[in-house]
């Protein structure tokens, strides 16, 4: 599970870390393709530096990844509506900050996974009930290995397409974290769990 999660976050960060250079589009698959095409040239120039300079990877992820994720939605769905509804605004903000920071801190080295991969994106599948919600299927192709499937769940908010979930090789990112968090929440309670999110002990699990 840990190895799959590393690949999941690595793939996400490789795709999104240079998201600022993509032009706005009504087609979420075009948005992702523009990001991938442009970032490959940047990663080729910085591949070796990213392997050794942890601060560079962390800086790139924090600067370019966060704007492409609907962090509050991501956090609320990971925690679950039953618990989320019991939190006040400060607790919601604290959980979201701690959760997203843990993800970024733990997987910043995902950028170093780039080693000549290419990406192909299918046309988006828009929700029949909500045209501002879509799924984009893609494959990350690696020399000498089987293609790596990545499905992006996206929602258009304030004119921009944002990531609300990622499914890699059948692993749902939000559900995976939910399964990691739930036992500890049941053991110590949500307030203590939120306090622990920023501790090295929890991040190491």
TrEMBL record:
For this UniProt record, the keywords arranged alphabetically read as follows: Signal
| Superkingdom | Bacteria
Pfam families noted in UniProt = MlaC (PF05494)
- So which residues are the signal peptide here? 1-24
The question of whether Signal is a record keyword is answered with: yes
- This protein's name: ABC transporter substrate-binding protein
Ranked from the top, the taxonomy reads: Bacteria, Pseudomonadati, Pseudomonadota, Gammaproteobacteria, Oceanospirillales
């Amino acid at each position: 599970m840990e190895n799959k999660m590393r690949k999941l976050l690595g793939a996400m960060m490789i795709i999104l870390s240079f998201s600022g250079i993509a032009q706005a589009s009504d087609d979420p698959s075009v948005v992702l393709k523009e990001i991938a095409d442009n970032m490959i040239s940047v990663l080729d120039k910085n591949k070796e530096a990213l392997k050794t300079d942890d601060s560079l990877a962390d800086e790139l992820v924090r600067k370019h990844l966060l704007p492409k994720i609907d962090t509050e939605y991501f956090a609320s769905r990971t925690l679950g509506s039953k618990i989320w509804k019991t939190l006040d605004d400060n607790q919601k903000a604290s959980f979201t900050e701690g959760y997203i920071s843990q993800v970024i801190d733990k997987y910043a080295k995902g950028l170093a996974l780039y080693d000549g991969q290419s990406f192909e994106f299918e046309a988006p599948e828009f929700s029949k009930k909500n045209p501002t919600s879509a799924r984009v299927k893609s494959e990350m192709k690696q020399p000498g290995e089987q293609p790596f499937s990545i499905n992006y769940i996206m929602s258009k908010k304030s004119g921009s397409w944002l990531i609300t979930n990622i499914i890699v090789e059948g692993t749902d990112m939000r559900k995976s974290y939910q399964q990691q968090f739930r036992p500890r929440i049941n053991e110590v309670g949500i307030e203590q769990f939120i306090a622990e999110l920023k501790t090295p002990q929890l991040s190491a699990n």
